Amino acid sequence: MNPPRPAWAAAAAAAAGCAASAWHILHHDAPPSFDEAWYLEVSFRLWNALSAFHFSDFAREYVTALRFKAPLVCVLPLPLYAVLGPSYAAARLANLAALCLLARALYGLGRKFFSPAAGALAAALALLMPMVAALSRLYFVETWLAALSTAFLWRWAESDALRRPEEAPRLGVLTGLGMLTKVLFPLPLVGPLALTLYERRAPWRELEGPVKTLAAVAAALALTWYGPNLVYVAGYTVRASAGDIASHYATGSPFDPRILARFCDAMARDGFSYPVALLLAASLTALGVRRILAEPGLRFALAWCVPPLLAA
What we know:
17 helices
């Protein structure tokens, strides 16, 4: 059976987004920033060990990589290094696969809750968002974090909150890879997971098997790095959330109207873009709270988006 036209539209949006990012990466060769340079250094060390077939050195470099930052972003460019050679451009080009995954997952979520056309529109709008487009051209973890978290929620929705247990291994892989991308990977997932489990109200005996499978697969992947580095991650998390590191990022009370206004303006301008933010605000206003809460797809989206925004 041929894919529906909206699927081709979503694929076209992904291709256009990837082409734009690839052109920018290949034509703008400014040096990497601090975090990018650190990721790049580790990635090159991993490549040097792997290309020399020094697998014990590769394992050691992987385990000690970054210590308090998850290392998957340093591993993902290795196949491209094999084809293009190790370079800053090759490392950033690995983000194109994340854009494709993000578009596919958003299309799948839109089709699941609304329609194929809604899924195609979601994929296109996401790839047009300034933050998504800009970060896909830099060697940061956020592009892969967005792609893997969205892919997890897509497969979670398709599993009907684990009613289809065959999805559990796939969810476990996405969880493990997500944790290896960033320690905050679970944050945007908690709301949709809690909502769907509450709505389903399944007894634990139905969930026990799939949950154990999911957890075992995720742990097998994540503990390859978190096992020896958990103490560093825990220490850094505490310092960055409520310790000395957090103090460097404090700009005042989050309840200060001026700070809140600047945050909202930055989200509208650099996150969604003003046109998309206005379209979203108008659409939600037209629907009204009652209709939004009555629609499963919109409840899922609110549970996904609101908690991280409040935490920010």
